[in-house]
Amino acid sequence: MQAYEALSDTMETEIRSLTELIALARQKHAVISDEKQIAMIAAKEEKILQRLQHVEAERQALFDVVAPGKSLQQWLDEAGEIQVQLAPVAERLQQSFVELKDLNEINMQLVEESLAYVRYSLNLLNASGPSTYGRKGQTDAGRSIFNRKV
Fold first, then answer.
1. Which has the closest alpha carbon to 33: 95, 119, 114?
2. For range 76-100, the mean pLDDT
3. SS3 per residue for the chain
4. Contact status, residue 54 vs residue 82, Cβ threshold 8 Å
5. Which of 38-47, 60-69, 120-129 has the highest mean pLDDT?
6. Are 100 and 38 in contact (CB under 8 A)?
7. How buried is 97 (Cβ within 10 angstroms: 0-12 exposed, 13-18 middle, 19+ buried)?
8. In whole angstroms, what is the distance from residue 150 CA to residue 148 CA?
9. Cα–Cα distances in Å, from 89 out to 9, 10, 36, 48?
10. Neighbouring C-beta atoms of residue 124, cutoff 10 Å
11. Distance between CA atoms of 109 and 92, rounded to whole angstroms?
């Protein structure tokens, strides 16, 4: 019975860590254009991820003791008192992973859009179109978007 309780406690610890990561992902969403804030959030995430990695390894070891050779879903599908008690915890854990994955995908899309905008802006400033008073086919490497020879 102790292994089941330890497994449940470990899963609850994982859920708490994932909840922290979800909160940080939401913070990132709000400050996606502030690189200092993003760096601070990323440092916090790294600490939580290290802790989560240890908890995940512990959960896997405990699960191998409880249900050797089975997947979590196979084990939960068996009718038993322990499975009934752990099913809601396992469901919350799975939902937390899915929510974190969805938030990370949204944040990744926002970062890609920001990067595309920055690239677009740089291309406008460094455009290599024809000079105003240059020869045809000749481009000025240090050309600015503004014509200073007016």
1. 114
2. 89
3. CHHHHHHHHHHHHHHHHHHHHHHHHHHHHHCCCCHHHHHHHHHHHHHHHHHHHHHHHHHHHHHHHHCCCCCHHHHHHCCCHHHHHHHHHHHHHHHHHHHHHHHHHHHHHHHHHHHHHHHHHHHHHCCCCCCCCCCCCCCCCCCCCCCCCC
4. no
5. 38-47
6. no
7. middle
8. 6
9. 10, 10, 36, 20
10. 9
11. 26
| Residue whose pair of structure tokens reads 């926002």 in the numeric block | 110
Q: Which amino acid is at 88?
A: P
Q: Note the pLDDT of residue 130.
A: 47
At residue 19, what is the residue type?
Answer: T
Count of C-beta atoms within a 10 Å radius of residue 106: 15
pTM as predicted: 0.74
pLDDT per residue over 106-122, tens digit each? 989 988 888 888 888 88
Q: How far is CA 41 from CA 6, 28, 38, 44, 97, in A?
A: 30, 7, 5, 5, 19
